[in-house]
Amino acid sequence: MARYTLTVRDGPRVVHEHHRELETALDALQARVLELTARRPREALDVKTRTFAPAEQVVARAELRGPERLLPRIRAGVDVRGDGSAEAWTGRARRQPIAREDGESALSALRRTVAA
User: Would the pTM of this model clear 0.70, i.e. be above it?
Assistant: First the structure.
Protein backbone atom coordinates (compact mmCIF):
# COMPACT_ATOMS: atom_id res chain seq x y z
CA MET A 1 0.00 0.00 0.00
CA ALA A 2 1.30 3.46 -0.91
CA ARG A 3 2.21 5.73 1.96
CA TYR A 4 3.01 9.06 0.27
CA THR A 5 0.92 10.88 -2.32
CA LEU A 6 2.41 13.40 -4.72
CA THR A 7 -0.16 15.69 -6.37
CA VAL A 8 0.98 17.94 -9.19
CA ARG A 9 -1.39 20.70 -10.32
CA ASP A 10 -0.29 22.26 -13.61
CA GLY A 11 -2.99 24.62 -14.82
CA PRO A 12 -6.13 22.50 -15.28
CA ARG A 13 -4.18 19.19 -15.21
CA VAL A 14 -3.91 17.26 -11.95
CA VAL A 15 -1.71 14.16 -11.63
CA HIS A 16 -1.50 11.91 -8.55
CA GLU A 17 1.43 9.59 -7.90
CA HIS A 18 1.82 7.16 -5.01
CA HIS A 19 5.15 6.22 -3.43
CA ARG A 20 6.08 3.84 -0.64
CA GLU A 21 9.21 5.69 0.46
CA LEU A 22 9.70 9.35 1.36
CA GLU A 23 12.95 9.58 -0.63
CA THR A 24 11.34 8.34 -3.86
CA ALA A 25 8.43 10.73 -3.36
CA LEU A 26 10.83 13.65 -2.85
CA ASP A 27 12.84 12.60 -5.92
CA ALA A 28 9.67 12.52 -8.02
CA LEU A 29 8.59 15.93 -6.67
CA GLN A 30 12.01 17.38 -7.48
CA ALA A 31 11.94 16.03 -11.04
CA ARG A 32 8.49 17.53 -11.70
CA VAL A 33 9.38 20.92 -10.17
CA LEU A 34 12.60 21.15 -12.19
CA GLU A 35 10.57 20.39 -15.33
CA LEU A 36 7.99 23.06 -14.45
CA THR A 37 10.53 25.77 -13.60
CA ALA A 38 12.36 25.28 -16.91
CA ARG A 39 9.41 26.66 -18.88
CA ARG A 40 9.30 30.02 -20.60
CA PRO A 41 8.32 32.78 -18.14
CA ARG A 42 4.76 34.05 -18.18
CA GLU A 43 3.70 37.57 -19.04
CA ALA A 44 2.14 39.93 -16.50
CA LEU A 45 -1.58 39.27 -16.08
CA ASP A 46 -3.72 42.40 -16.33
CA VAL A 47 -7.19 42.27 -14.84
CA LYS A 48 -9.23 45.44 -14.81
CA THR A 49 -8.37 46.47 -11.28
CA ARG A 50 -4.84 45.10 -10.90
CA THR A 51 -1.83 43.76 -12.75
CA PHE A 52 -0.21 40.55 -11.47
CA ALA A 53 3.52 40.28 -12.14
CA PRO A 54 4.84 36.83 -13.14
CA ALA A 55 6.39 36.39 -9.68
CA GLU A 56 2.92 36.83 -8.12
CA GLN A 57 1.31 34.08 -10.23
CA VAL A 58 1.35 30.46 -9.03
CA VAL A 59 1.28 28.51 -12.29
CA ALA A 60 1.86 25.04 -10.83
CA ARG A 61 1.94 23.33 -7.44
CA ALA A 62 3.51 20.06 -6.33
CA GLU A 63 2.17 18.80 -2.99
CA LEU A 64 3.39 15.87 -0.90
CA ARG A 65 1.10 14.21 1.65
CA GLY A 66 1.53 11.24 3.94
CA PRO A 67 1.98 8.91 5.65
CA GLU A 68 -1.72 8.41 6.18
CA ARG A 69 -1.77 6.78 9.61
CA LEU A 70 1.10 8.49 11.40
CA LEU A 71 1.12 11.82 13.20
CA PRO A 72 2.49 14.34 12.52
CA ARG A 73 1.50 13.84 8.93
CA ILE A 74 3.53 15.44 6.15
CA ARG A 75 1.77 18.18 4.21
CA ALA A 76 4.29 20.19 2.21
CA GLY A 77 5.05 21.25 -1.32
CA VAL A 78 6.47 23.71 -3.80
CA ASP A 79 4.71 26.50 -5.70
CA VAL A 80 6.12 27.31 -9.13
CA ARG A 81 5.74 30.99 -10.01
CA GLY A 82 5.19 32.55 -13.42
CA ASP A 83 8.76 33.86 -13.54
CA GLY A 84 10.22 30.36 -13.05
CA SER A 85 11.00 30.75 -9.37
CA ALA A 86 9.86 28.26 -6.76
CA GLU A 87 8.77 28.59 -3.13
CA ALA A 88 8.59 25.70 -0.67
CA TRP A 89 5.86 25.61 1.98
CA THR A 90 4.32 23.46 4.71
CA GLY A 91 0.81 23.30 6.06
CA ARG A 92 -2.65 22.65 4.76
CA ALA A 93 -5.16 25.47 4.88
CA ARG A 94 -2.54 27.97 6.04
CA ARG A 95 0.59 27.46 4.03
CA GLN A 96 3.74 28.67 5.75
CA PRO A 97 6.74 29.44 3.52
CA ILE A 98 9.90 27.51 4.36
CA ALA A 99 12.81 29.83 5.06
CA ARG A 100 15.86 29.08 2.95
CA GLU A 101 19.35 28.92 4.37
CA ASP A 102 22.29 30.54 2.56
CA GLY A 103 22.58 29.24 -1.02
CA GLU A 104 19.73 26.77 -0.56
CA SER A 105 17.11 26.14 -3.24
CA ALA A 106 13.41 25.73 -2.53
CA LEU A 107 13.72 21.98 -3.16
CA SER A 108 16.64 21.66 -0.74
CA ALA A 109 14.72 23.61 1.91
CA LEU A 110 11.73 21.30 1.45
CA ARG A 111 13.90 18.17 1.77
CA ARG A 112 15.56 19.56 4.92
CA THR A 113 12.23 20.40 6.53
CA VAL A 114 10.43 17.18 5.61
CA ALA A 115 13.35 14.96 6.63
CA ALA A 116 13.54 16.56 10.09
Answer: yes
